């Protein structure tokens, strides 16, 4: 029994961050201004605090300034929208990251839409979703964007291949499918209401699992030779794919951790520098 | 051999237009203002002139005022955007229809984005695409919206069923798939780069053909008992589905003409009245 080759997101992300750091340094030297990412955090959810800290640390290593905007847990949607509009209008900020999910009292969509599309480096606005969907220039959602980079890195051309995306969230499943479609894959969206998930997944040359249900996709569901992208994460470093059985059927597979995960922040940093370059005219 | 039942778009559209006319009359009586659709036409392409005339005639029969804005063929994108922004800001206009496709010198996307989302009754803006995709309130693209109404009318619940959309245009295939996904179908997008279209279509409980290639889908590609929606149109009243063979396999099928076609204008009128009701506060 052969084993799939691992898609090493850690190594690819490192290289992207190194290249991004060089570009950031170049922008800083030429303009006197470092690329700046505003990180907006509502409340003190421990996981969110950790994510934001990781992102800010990674910014630092890449020569990107981060401006942290912590807001109290009882911030209203109106106040949050006001803050995001100010940051959108602030020429010293090139990219905006609004950490989410937020509390149920926040209208998340209203908040996202207060981010100017040209600063939407996390790819959460309607405009970003549409440009991804229509194959137009714009920012991508970071995890789906990272998935496409991984496929490119490992020479997987989606054109003409069957891709099955399991999951349909606004920032992961849906845009991942749209990016694959823009690259000419034949794309199927599966989800919790899909009646025969195994049958659908077995059609796939490329599987993207993005639901956050531990080991939902088993090896027997994987078409021999398929490319398996596990974008799921559950506590204990468990993905949406049963790695041990899937690795025996796939040709390429992402490990968890070290597959899709590192690509998300790398894409965020890269897009922040893209945004800064455009806004600073370099 | 049994034959599929026909999905009569003409009858359903007529009923929707009648209901819309009642609502338009009610709005006019209560506010003193009739719902108003601005129709913007660049140049004098005969087909476009005909389409706009049809839409305006239909508005008239439904008690909707139409304000026609004909622009010369050499109108620039900038001028068109200016006109659309004025109409977006004009409180006397409740909905805006920009007839397309336009000449290649026009940046169609820039023009669409100049339409205020609350007046985008043709469902062409990024915002409308995103709200369709995320199952949020907003206007739908008229043809996909009409398709969903036809499915509802004939008791077809997409939840848990395999839907295959052939075509991925911004105003037809892509939003049709997103609307089906929002209604819990397992959705596959096929297109010109799909390697085995017949195999993919044979998986479908619901087929939406939306490419404009005469008789692309043949009866042998239709799963017995499937619902077949033909949103294609080619000269000579030819759809994307080979009707004569498909009618013998499907359980429900739209004729061409008289299936999807009439639903498009009906949806446009209905959404214009929705827009007017919201803007006039009734």
From TrEMBL, chains A, B:
Residues 7-122 form the Tetrahydrofolate dehydrogenase/cyclohydrolase catalytic domain. PROSITE patterns: THF_DHG_CYH_2. Its EC number is 1.5.1.5, 3.5.4.9. It comes from the Bacteria. NADP(+) binds at residues 167-169. Pfam families: THF_DHG_CYH, THF_DHG_CYH_C. Keywords: Amino-acid biosynthesis, Histidine biosynthesis, Hydrolase, Methionine biosynthesis, Multifunctional enzyme, NADP, One-carbon metabolism, Oxidoreductase, Purine biosynthesis. Pathway: One-carbon metabolism; tetrahydrofolate interconversion. Coiled coil: none annotated. It catalyses: (6R)-5,10-methenyltetrahydrofolate + H2O = (6R)-10-formyltetrahydrofolate + H(+); (6R)-5,10-methylene-5,6,7,8-tetrahydrofolate + NADP(+) = (6R)-5,10-methenyltetrahydrofolate + NADPH. Catalyzes the oxidation of 5,10-methylenetetrahydrofolate to 5,10-methenyltetrahydrofolate and then the hydrolysis of 5,10-methenyltetrahydrofolate to 10-formyltetrahydrofolate. Homodimer. This is Bifunctional protein FolD. It comes from Streptomyces shaanxiensis.
